[in-house]
Each structure stands twice: as structure tokens, then as C-alpha cells.
Amino acid sequence: MTTDARALEAAQLHAEELRTTIRYHDYRYHVLAQPEIGDSEYDRLYRELVDLEEQHPELVTPDSPTQRVGGQAVEGFATIQHREPMLSLGNVFNGEELRAWHARVCRLVERDAFAMVCEPKIDGLAMSLVYRAGRFATGATRGDGTRGEDITANLRTIRALPLVAGRGEDRSPEAFEVRGEVYMPRPEFERLNAERAAAGEQLYMNPRNTAAGSVRQLDPAITASRRLALFAYQLGWVEGRAPVDSQWGALEWLRALGFPTSPHARRLQTVEEVEAFCAEWAERRDSLEYDIDGVVVKVDEFALQRQLGIVGREPRWATAFKFPAEQAVTRLRGIDVSVGRTGVLTPFAVLEPVFVGGATVSLATLHNEEQIRLKDIRAGDDVIVQRAGDVIPQVVGPVLSRREGRDLEAFEMPSACPVCHTPVQRDPSEARTYCPNRDCPVQLARQLEHFASRGAMDIEGLGEQLSFRLVDLGFVRTLSDLYALPDRREELLQLEGIGAKTLDALFARIEASKRQPLHRLLIGLSIRHVGGETARALALYFGSMDALRAAPLEEIMGVEGIGPIVAQSVHDSLHDERTAALVDRLRAAGVRQDEDISARGGPLEGVQIVVTGALTQWSRNEIEELIKRLGGKVGSSVTKNTAYLVAGEGGGSKRTKAEQLGTPILDEDGLLEVLRDRGWTPD
Ligand SMILES: [Zn+2]
């Protein structure tokens, strides 16, 4: 056999393999509505087959997936023959291919320029909606492009779909077809999955698959419960006089008839503008509440569209600019567990490195133990990995068909901490597993890293690596040891990779961190539920660590923006012996423990005021700012610590409470009077 013949035979085998794989996924997707792989992975397989057949045209068979669009009608729904086929769009993947498409159209229509209508391409399901005498008559899925399924009853349940187009005015044609995309908004998808998680059911993979499953329910009541949404994007066939002669005109006409259309559609004149539009949406895609996978570009004028016509199953007058793939399939080598600074064990995925979303990914989040169980992800599986923008890469789910014949074990949380080997505990209220050992070195190292982080004490140069080293080598056994490091300069200089210059710079920043205000210290202490906002609110209210430590629980709860769970956590933590001792040692080391409150000694110093109801002279923000500026504190509810309730119009329950406690109630003039009595005059 010649080399050429061998190469051809190899290509033939590979083409057959691709066809079998694509047919399988077509079946899962179109017939069962249970796809196993993401669209971008499917697109990649499909494109590989197209490329192979282009290189070896003699290998193309009539039954190749490239020669027809996959899918058969499923029992249970009647079949609807589309009067005009529902075409699919050709793709372009970058600016160069987009400009080539534009140049080709220019050549074909013998023009230098033409208007184009662009809109984000929703990752949903294309639908054919037929209206007769102004009323929604039938709706069908795309199916194989020629015949789809009659899902009229299900589509009727979508609230965005008008059952009557316009107000039945005579300007609407006898009958017409609207093409639209049905999709599931992301918040709805999250709501459904939260429900399923609570019921212990397997989670849905993504909004698109869930929408597909939802419109093909045999019981319309189930579809209705899913709250699907719709965008109309095109006018199909028209019986009688056509109302418009362009795509842009069609969108306006549809909008006027009450159809939802994309608010982001634009009519653009040059290919440069279109390219910029595509780049903008590639950047902003996460800002929408639905998934988009590209931008659809259409020639605006219908006359030009007719002139351009269709090749194969793709119109020449439109194209889809596809965004870079954000999903890929790779092998899950194993599931490891990390320990956080509060001791919580978090599983994560160790992957065969894979290029996705513009970067090589070898680690990905699995969220938590429950997600692994609900998605049935096992070490050794081929998994779908997703990486979008700056979001941490995540494992979407396993490709179950590739598990066949292999015996993979279900994941189990380790029974002991992977670092200190203390038996783990479970917190059933939060479904979390944690290491209860408060001397667990990994927790301390993580706490040290957090203490030094930019949002906390801001000690540049003390990152993850150095934190772990200092803990491992015994230089830090508790956070306050950090401030004793300068005394151990000679010992530290013995360590590999630490020069005198670096070390002295680090010492200078450790020294400088002693002057950080109280709220930074509170952030740095790794108290559960205390983030930046909470820490600032507490620091501003109490002014000093001593005042905060002395405060009873109910006073902490009374601080604006502090809920009962957070208050309890702060209170417990500061009354815990170890934390109290740590705070004392930090103070002894010279770490500042108060906050700058400019109005120290102001007329309202130490006075807690609660504001309620609608005011006339000030906005709520203005009066709260004024109280704080004068040294006062703004409380969220009336307690015995409240000095005054400032009440505007309304404000029922706080007023009642103040009356019960005998707290003085002031109107705005009353407040001004109190302020004047305390020696303050408005400017
Ligand atoms: Zn541990």
C-alpha cells in the first residue's frame, strides 16, 4: 500500500469515527433532549468533520451529518412541515473571516457597502411561530430544518409570546410566520437547580439544555412552571402584502405588534462597526442574564437577501460571529481537597491540562461535595470544563457516554483533615465538612496569608508561599508572631531564597501595618461572616476594639447593616479566649486598635440615633451622614441604647417600639433643636 493510500484509509476511519460520534450526540440532543456535551465541543467535532471532508471530498457519504441536519420527530408530538426551511447560519470566528464574508457579499451584489443588522446570538432554541388573522396559530421547533415538532401548547405558556399580534388591526397581513429564540434566563435556571438540589435530584447542566427539555414536555403545565423567555428575531413567510422590506423594518414591525425583540439589535453600515459590535459583546457577554455565544449579522435589505440566496442549508446573506469556545472536554485526573482559613474542606478538580477560554487550565472548582454528588462526577471521568472571562474555571459535569465499561468510584470526602489528620466534622446546617483542629497548620497559614492581604493589613510580599513557609518552619504559631519576626532576622536570613534586602523591606511593611485602622484588623482576624462592609460598619460604630469587645450582643445587632448571624459570630469570636488573647498580644506588639472618626468630641459623640419614615429636609443618606459626622451613631432598630428616634412621615413599628421604651421621638425640627442645644449650628 502506498503512503497516500494509507493516509486516505486513516482519514476514512477517522471520518467514520467522527460521524458516529456526531450522530450519537445529535440523537441525544435532538431526539432525547439530553445532550452530553456543550455546543462548542459539538461545534469542534462538526468542524473537524467538515475540514476532513473538504480535504478528501471522495470520502463524503450521503448520510454524513454534514449533509443533513440531525434529528427526528419524537413520538408524542405531531410533526409540522415548515413552509420555508429553517436554515442554519454559517460561522465566522474572527475579524478576518468576518471581513472576508463582507467582501464576498459586496462582490455578489456589486456594491461597496450595504447596511447590516446585528444582534447578540442567544444560546437558546429556534422556533417557528405562525399567526393567522392576527392570532398565534401554531408553533414548532426547528427539528431537522424542514420538519419540526408541534409544540404549540407549550409555547402558549411562554408569557413573552403574544397570543394576539397587535390589536388585530387590518395592517397585519392575513398570515405570517415569526422566527424566534426561546431561552431560559439564568436566574430562573439557578432557581430550578436550587430546587433540585434541595430535593436531592440531579442538577441541570446549563440553561440551554434545560430550556430544550422544558419546551418538549408532554405536559404544558410543566413548561409553564419553567418561566421561559423569548426573543423574536426574524419575519418568516408572509401571506398577503408584506409589511416591510428590510430586516430592521421587520424588527420594528414585530416590536410594534408586541413581540419581544433584542434591545441590543443595531443597524450598522460598515464592517468595521460590525467588528467593533462583536468585540464589545464578546467582552460584555456575562453582563446579560442569558447566555450568548456570538453575534448574528444579517444583510438588512430583503431585495439584497433575495439576490444573495442560499447555498446548501446556509443563507449567503447572514452569518454568525462565534465567540471563542468557553467549554472543552478533558480527563479528570483526580479530586483533591483543600483546607481553608476557617477549616472548611473544599474539593477541587485536578485535570489533564486543556486549552479553554483563552488559557490552559489544569485545576478547576467543583464547588462543593453536594454538587459532586448531584452531578455524579468521578475521578477518571471525561468532564466538561468551562472558563469564561475572569471567572474561576469550573467543572460543568461528566460526559457519561465515555465512562462506559470503566469502573469509577464515587467521590467521598476524606474522614480526616488531609494536612493535620484530625477527624473531620460535619456542619449539617451548612452541609460543610471542616477540620476542627484550631492548631491545624494549613488553617494558620491561610489566616496569615489573609491577614497580610491587601484588603486587610496590606503587607506586600507576604503571600501564600511565604505564609506556608513561615508556618511550616515554626516561625509563626499564632498571628501575632508576625510582629516578632524582626527579632529573628539572623535565623530568617539562613532560609533559602530570602535576601537581606527583601527581608528588611518586608519588615518595614510589617511595621507599617501596625498603623492600619481597626476595620482592617477586623477583616484580618478571619472572623466568620466578617468582610469589608461589616468590618467598616463595626469600626465606625464602636470606634475602638475595647468598645466592640465590651458591647453586648444586642448592641452589635443594632448596628446598621449587621444581621443577627453576623453579630453572633462577632460577639462569640471576640469573647473566645484564644481570639481575646490574640487581640491582646497584637496590642502589646503595637498594633493599633481604633478607627479614625473625624468627629471625635463632636456634639453627638456616643449618641445613638435611629431614623425612620420619610423626611422632608434631608434624604436618608444625608441625615445619616450628618449624624455620623457629628460623632453620633446610626442604629437600625430602637433599643434601650437609642437616645432619639427621628421620625418622618410613616415609620410605624419603630415609633411603636420607641413609645414602649419611652425613647424621645423627634421630628426634623426637633433634631435641629437638640443639635443647637448641644452647641451645633447649621452652616
Ligand atoms: Zn487540619
Any overview of this molecule?
This protein is α+β, with helices and mostly antiparallel strands. The strands form 7 sheets. The protein has a 5-stranded mixed sheet with strand order 2-13-10-3-9. It is globular and about 85 Å long. It starts with a helix and ends in a 6-residue tail after the last helix. Zinc ion binds at residues 339, 417, 419-420, 422, 435, 437, 440, 442.
Offer a quick outline of the entry:
The chain is an alpha+beta fold. 37% of the residues lie in helices and 20% in strands. The chain folds into 6 domains: 3-72, Orthogonal Bundle (Helix Hairpins), CATH 1.10.287.610; 80-322, DNA ligase/mRNA capping enzyme (D-amino Acid Aminotransferase, Chain A, domain 1, 2-Layer Sandwich); 327-436, OB fold (Dihydrolipoamide Acetyltransferase, E2P); 441-513, Orthogonal Bundle (DNA polymerase, domain 1), CATH 1.10.150; 518-588, 5' to 3' exonuclease, C-terminal subdomain (DNA polymerase, domain 1); 608-677, 3-Layer(aba) Sandwich (Rossmann fold).
Most strands sheet: 5 strands, mixed
CATH architecture of the largest domain: 2-Layer Sandwich
State the name of the first-level CATH class of the largest domain.
Answer: Alpha Beta
How far apart are the termini? 99 Å
Bound molecules: zinc ion
Instruction: Kindly report the average pLDDT value.
Output: 87
Helix content: 25-40%
In total, the number of domains comes to 6
Overall structural class, as computed from helix and strand content, comes to alpha+beta
Radius of gyration: 33 Å
Q: What is the assigned CATH homologous superfamily of the largest domain?
A: DNA ligase/mRNA capping enzyme
Poorly predicted tracts of residues: 68-74
The neighbouring-strand order within the major sheet is: 2-13-10-3-9
**Strand portion:** 15-25%
The CATH topology name of the largest domain reads: D-amino Acid Aminotransferase, Chain A, domain 1
What spatial form do the alpha-carbon principal axes imply? Answer: globular
The total strand number stands at 24
